[in-house]
Amino acid sequence: MTIGPRRGKIGRAGRPGTLIVLAAACSCWGMVPAGAADLDEAEALLRSGSYEEAARMAAEAVGGFVWEERWIQLKAEAELATGADEAALASLEVGLRRFPASLPLLMMARDVFRYTGRAGEVPAVLDRIERLIRTFPDRYDTAGGRVALGRFFLLRGIDPKQVLDRFFDVAIDREPGLVDAYLASAELALEKRDDALAAETLARAPEEAADDPRYQFLLARAFSEGDRARSAEAIEAALGLNPNHADSLLLRANHLIDAEAYEQAEAVLGRVLEINSRDQQAWAFLAVIAHLTNDPEGEAEARASALDRWEENPEVDHILGRELSQKYRFAEGSAYQRRALERDPEYLPAKIQLCTDLLRLGAEEEGWALANEVFERDGYNVLAYNLVTLKGELDGYRTLEGDGFLVRMDPDEAELYGDRVLDLLGRARQTLRERYGASVEEPVVVEVFPSKNDFAVRTFGLPGADGFLGVCFGRVITAISPAAQGEDPSNWESVLWHEYCHSVTLARSKNKMPRWLSEGISVFEEGREDPSWATRIDPHSREKLLADDLTPLSGLSGAFLAPESPLDVQFAYFESALAVEFLVGLEGLEAIRGLLDDLGAGVPINDALPDRFGKSLEELDEQFLDLARSKAEAAAPGASWEVPELPPDADVEALEAWLEGHPGSIPGWRRLGLRLVDEERWERAEEALTTLKGLDPDGVGPESADALLAAVFRERDDPEAEREALQSLVSRDAGAGSALLRLIELDEEEEDWPSLADHCRAMLAVNPLIPAPHRGLARAAERLGETGDAIDAYQALATLDPTDPAEIHFRLAGLLQQEGRADEARREVLKALEEAPRFREAHRLLLELVEGEPAIPR
């Protein structure tokens, strides 16, 4: 899956004749460059947010009949920024009498007319602009004119690639310092959902662009989804330049709503309304907060205020729906997108958002149809392009049906482990539905992707999604298969268990639960189902738990936002699970079920917690912090996490000398053990690693004491000690694939069939796409008389292009014969003979099958 077309394809182009004329046009649009000091001063006032002062200066200039068009435009811009729409209309009328062919003023008329009850005149204004362009093309051929023309042609549906090439890029080539050209290009990229291209475009802008709040705001938008911390920095920069920059304040409020910091968001929105009491987006966001806090009257009032400025504005309902969907309330979100489309059936942002909502709700027929419709209308919409391309991939997937599930997988992968997926989901369904008393709307659709980009597009609309293994939307679950995870895949069974748990808790809470609680319950339930799936304290999480700024229980809603590193994201999962463990310890699982019911009834989480657990929020915070610290202190007691202050190439003697003064240092003993293993000093390595094991008995990973001890014991030819170390490791880490593969080798050498079967099954939950676990399970199940499992394993092995296909088909034929499946057995023995025509035992078995003789024991 690749990102949508950007600059490489020319799509449909309305009115190509106009573009051809303009491509050769030259001259000026009638705007006199503002060189006077007072105009520069007014521009600076406008940029800094001193709108009333800027409007006053402009009014004086316009009243004095200064024939510079920019004064009139500046006055109207300042008036619009404060909601003085009627004053802006009067300024516009004066301007158009003086400059009837002014493209900037005519373009401004689009907003001014809508905000003053004259929206019906907008089409005539756009037609007037087009007539002027056709009649006087030379008038608009400055670099600034090219930017304005590009924006106009985008409104008229001209192909974005042509606009970019013939207008914005031409403007930059002619005047590399023209900041507005870079801003226009970045706006276009953001409109098409191409955040990376927007950031790239802004990075090429001249240095002085950083002094423009619009630049910082666009940069904040470009990083809003992928790097929230950097986005916040850009918002701060914009507001440092202009404390009244409404767009930046609105983006900050949006981030606060994401973090469920509703009071803070309301304060920011209040600031926007102080600047402009008619700001439509501010009122829309207030309606969002009212909806999320179960205030239907407040929501209706805020929505009415949002529509007061322009009643037919589809953006208001689009914002409401988009933000509700951001909270996984897709049914409510999609209803608002439909309301937006009632106001403007051609409003593409609502169409593509409705598309993604429907796909997440499992309403696939309408969802995919909308993706096609948006792509046909706008071939440069990255989200639509990616979805349409993905649909072609999904059409080739195989669909498996189980009790309550539809599972879509790559056909080859479905053959190898599709039945295991269904079995795992069936167990999760029975266990978790009973545990949480929830009724999930079925069938639940589970899509498993062998491509990380395909998973990301289906899940988020764009490639990327590093760090995600699965996502649940309620009725729809997406996950990546081991094929997309490289050499060290995670345990896919634990991933699907985790995601289906989301389906259950989202159903009980009516999709009204904060992310921390949803993730916390799912991680908690992983460890409850299988201790080797549990998340354990590591040095990073221990340090975070003991830190003075540990996020309290009441603030966990913001824990997943603006992480400084992937480790911080993992810690957010860990802390959320610890919070659930804490709450279950207080009042049991029944209280958690009740909490989900409270949330489903619309009670905010920080109101529901005290009511449900009988303690104030402050008490809960304090007790949770006490638990967190006690957990951290109990991890590796008597040990320390001091890191040796030694050069990277420090030798054994230097490390041993340092450890004399720091005998409890886990990093120190680990580093010494690694150095000794590297130097093949096995006896001394065993001593050092045994010390490490005593200090950190629960360590996991390739540099844990158990993993390194296993390597030492292997070199010292001590299989029993090696097995003990490996067993210890996999009992804590279900994703330790290398350890499981080595255990499989040891089991086969010792012909320990029960242990071999167990370890092969465990490995199939990590990576079912390699032959070793299938081969081992086939042999073990055959010896143990588990014929069904042996058949499945040999069939999978045959699919994986084995090194000895004749033997595999022959053994499979014998097992099928034992099961009375003679026709299938004959097919398999013929396959064996195709591979090895002189295979005598296969000939003998074929005769038995043809003659109907009883099977000869083997």
From TrEMBL:
Statement: the UniProt record of this protein carries the keyword Signal: yes
The organism that produces this protein has a lineage beginning with: Bacteria, Pseudomonadati, Planctomycetota, Planctomycetia, Isosphaerales
The name of this protein is Tetratricopeptide repeat protein
- From which residue to which does the signal peptide run? 1-36
* Keywords, alphabetical: Signal
Q: Which SUPFAM superfamilies match?
A: TPR-like
The answer to whether UniProt assigns keyword Cell membrane to this entry is no
One Pfam family, short name: TPR_19
For this protein, the record's InterPro entries field holds: TPR-like_helical_dom_sf, TPR_rpt
Q: What is the organism of origin for this protein?
A: Tautonia plasticadhaerens
